[in-house]
Each structure stands twice: as structure tokens, then as C-alpha cells.
Amino acid sequence: MELTLNHRREGDKTVLEVGGEVDVYTAPKLREKLVELVGEGLYDVVVDMTKVEFLDSTGLGVLVGGLKRVRSHDGSLALVCNQERILKIFRITGLTKVFPIYDTLDEALQDA
Asked: How do residues 26-51 score in pLDDT, each as one tens digit?
């Protein structure tokens, strides 16, 4: 399965839409995109994961790394995830305490 990445501006936020599988093979592509966005001075990021079909520990590590990167610039990284099987991974790892996670993009954009 391929990984798709698209980003756009929504007001003062950058929305990064992620689709497909985020695993040991595709996670470097996500890491590069997050590094690129921060390099462009975009520190308030909403990662829309509603089209993610699979997420492994490598993908989680990339998201945590992205969070550290934006926070070093006083930024934020919020997630949009409404799939129970993906949310379960965040719960098990305790990352629900680290990331703000929203059901919809609208909620994330209003609150984040």
C-alpha cells in the first residue's frame, strides 16, 4: 500500500492529509514532509489521519518526532483520527495524553 501526503493552509494552520499505510517502509516519507513543513516555518500542524489504514510503531515515532519539532518552535501538532483501530494504538501507548486527537478536521481547526 502506498502512502499519500497532501498539505494545505487553513487559516493559520497547516493541514497534512495522510492516507494509506504508515509503517517502517513509508514512515520516512512522512518524516521528510514534517521536516519540510517545519523548515518552511509552518509550526501549527493538523495531521488528518482519517484515511490512514494502518499505523505501526515507526509511524508513531515519526509523529512524536514531528511533535517535538513543532514544539521547539512553540508550535502545535494535533491529530484527526476517527478510526477505532488506529485510536486504540494511541490509547495503548499512552499517546492520547501527548497528542490532542479530534474526530473531525473542523473540530481540530476550531480548537487547535
From this structure: 999 999 999 999 999 999 999 999 99
Packing angle of the helix pair 27-39, 57-71 (nearest 10 deg)? 10
User: What architecture does CATH give domain 3-105?
Assistant: 2-Layer Sandwich (3.30)
| Three-state DSSP class for residue 69 | helix
The phi-psi region of residue 79 (left if phi > 0; otherwise alpha if psi is between -120 and 50; otherwise beta) is beta
Q: What are phi and psi of 93, to 5 degrees?
A: -85, -5
Whether the per-residue pLDDT at 111 is higher than 90: the answer is no
Q: Rounded distance, CA 23 to CA 27, Å?
A: 5
* pTM assigned to the model: 0.96
How many angstroms separate the first and last alpha carbons of the chain?
Answer: 30
Domain boundaries, the chain: 3-105
CA pair distance 43, 34, nearest whole angstrom: 10
- Residue range 77-104: average pLDDT? 97
Q: What is the mean pLDDT of the chain?
A: 96
